[in-house]
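Lab manual, section 2.4: Encoding a predicted structure.

Procedure: take the sequence of the chain (126 residues), apply the prediction step described in section 2.3, and record the output as structure tokens. A sample record is shown.
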Amino acid sequence: MAEEYNLKNSELVIRKWKKKSELGTRQSSWEYEVGEQFVPKNLESEGLMESTSNPIFVRIDSVANFQWRIRNLPYPIATYNVTVDDDKQTITYKKPKEIIEMEKQMQAEFKKMKASKDGDVDCTPS
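Recorded output:
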């Protein structure tokens, strides 16, 4: 698992997992739980993949809420039927207190660690 946080406001930007393949012989590609992959996919290395014109559902977390966003809708908005809470008019889900407390503890631990900057990677060639 790898997580990326915004250092200014401590919000989770990306959480991704890498699992072993079905046969257990090699690592699969990254699976994104929170956030999204911004680099274009390479058909030669990926093989068969879903259409790029399909809608994409992305989970984005803020400090107090879980949010879901939909990207790449191929048809006009009138085509879709989205139901939301009439009282709140939102698709945001408030995080439980236990999750917020756990994330505060994690942030306290992260502050003890040195954050790496872009390009600040220990790369020892073999």
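Check your result against the sample. Residues 114 and 120 are 11 Å apart (CA to CA).
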